[in-house]
Specification:
Blueprint (H helix, E strand, L loop, with lengths): L2 E4 L9 H8 L5 E2 L7 H8 L5 E3 L5 H10 L7 E3 L3 H5 L8 H12 L16 E6 L1 H11 L4 E6 L19 E2 L2 E6 L5 E7 L13 H5 L22 H5 L13 E7 L1 E4 L15 E3 L12 E2 L6 E2 L3 E2 H7 L5 H9 L3 E3 L2 E3 L5 E2 L5 E3 L2 E3 L20 E5 L2 E5 L4 E3 L2
Helix pairs in contact: 1-5, 9-10
Length: 399
């Protein structure tokens, strides 16, 4: 691969022998390669090999000259040695650096970086307790196509059970696995329960008939409590045919664009989850994410807090000072040092500044699992700061 070096009208103290030895090539030192010595450039092009030109100042001129030269198939690579070393006050001792720059230019081009195209059709999977998942689904069903993966019901389901109207597709099972990213999540699970939720009409006849109370309001059989030999539930569901203890287990998979995980144990445990995956968090529904019902389009946004804002709200320092702390490496999240501005943190993450643990102290209605319009006056809520009562316009701390 021919390498062309030029001292730019004798303004750089280049040593062709030293550079040539490093490149294992006999180098000719040019002074006006872009003017009187362009013939040397054209000759190198006609060699058929890729050519390295140690000049970016006249890149446009050399490129035009290459197009005008007949029979040229060589690829020209340009490298800047003038501003990066040749014009420095230590130019005479910069030959190792310049040789390294020339050698790097001779390397083959790297493989293209793999790219991913994000395309969402609005299919949202909500994973969690059925009654809670249906409440969240109601916030976004007007703009997203919702499917619920039921994981039982919450302790409060007896007083506020799942809706009898089947507004959303509901699936359930075991061995749940999730892979992918925004627009391309793939859910795999094993459908191994005697009750087929596609056939279930939620008539509650099976709940009344089951002597062990093994069927819950999620309309799934708890096999640890059930005695299949007593088929009262099968008889009660004979018309719909939704219950069959002999049905073989099936491994199923389905694709989704977005995933909202309400479970106490997140399906994705990466510190930086993939785009399109939102976890409610293991510490409770009032801590990990914010749910806002958009004023204009009713869409849902799930936004962890920026680290600098978290530090400011904890009363440590100002935003500018918080940025300086982050960049200096003085801040850790869950024991891992972070130094990138823009890092986001959930309210359940453990944040330390130096050796001191800090805690977010701001009461914020947006951290509650309901919109402001749904707050009930004189009702106590668990907020990021602890217990607080909503007086109709603001929170009154009870701590």
């Amino acid at each position: 691969m021919p390498t062309l070096i030029c001292n730019c009208n004798q303004t750089m103290p280049l040593d062709p022998r030293t550079l040539g030895a490093a490149l294992n090539e006999n180098l000719t030192l040019h002074s006006t390669l872009c003017r009187r010595e362009t013939a040397a450039f054209q000759k190198a092009l006609q060699s058929g090999e890729d050519v390295v030109v140690a000049c970016t100042q006249e890149k446009r001129l050399f490129s035009a000259l290459a197009q005008q030269t007949e029979g040229v198939t060589s690829v020209v690579k340009f490298v800047n040695i003038r501003e990066t070393g040749g014009w420095s006050k230590d130019a005479s001792s910069a030959m190792p650096k310049i040789a390294a720059l020339l050698a790097a230019a001779r390397l083959p081009d790297p493989e293209p970086v793999a790219t991913v195209t994000y395309k969402s059709g609005g299919r949202l999977l909500i994973v969690g307790e059925l009654d809670q998942a249906e409440q969240v689904a109601a916030l976004v069903a007007d703009v997203l196509d919702v499917t619920i993966f039921s994981q039982g019901v919450s302790p409060g389901a007896a007083s506020a059970p799942p809706d009898q109207e089947r507004k959303y597709p509901v699936i359930s099972g075991s061995a749940l696995q999730l892979n992918g990213w925004l627009g391309a999540f793939e859910l795999t699970w094993k459908r191994d329960n005697p009750i087929d939720l596609d056939l279930c009409t939620r008539c509650n006849a099976c709940l009344a008939a089951c002597p062990e109370g093994a069927i819950g309001l999620d309309y799934q059989v708890d096999m640890n409590r059930c005695k299949p030999t007593q088929s009262a539930c099968v008889t009660a569901c004979a018309a719909a045919g939704a219950i069959d203890f002999s049905r073989p287990a099936q491994t199923l998979n389905e694709r989704f664009d977005l995933v909202l995980d309400l479970g106490l144990k997140p399906l994705v445990t990466l510190h930086a989850p993939p785009q399109g995956y939102f976890s409610w968090g293991a510490a409770g529904k009032d801590a990990q994410v914010s749910i806002e019902q958009g004023a204009n389009d009713g869409s849902m946004r799930l936004n962890p807090m920026r680290l600098n804002r978290y530090i400011v709200n904890a009363g440590v320092c100002s935003k500018i000072e918080a940025d300086a702390l982050i960049v200096s490496g003085a801040v850790s999240i869950n024991g891992i040092m972070v130094n990138e501005l823009g890092t986001k943190v959930g309210l359940t993450d453990k944040v330390t500044v130096g050796n001191e643990s800090i805690k977010h102290e701001q009461i914020d209605v947006q951290k509650l699992p309901v919109s402001k319009a749904q707050l009930k006056t004189n009702t106590v809520y668990q907020t990021a700061r602890g217990s607080a009562k909503w007086n109709g316009s603001a929170f009154e701390s009870l701590n």
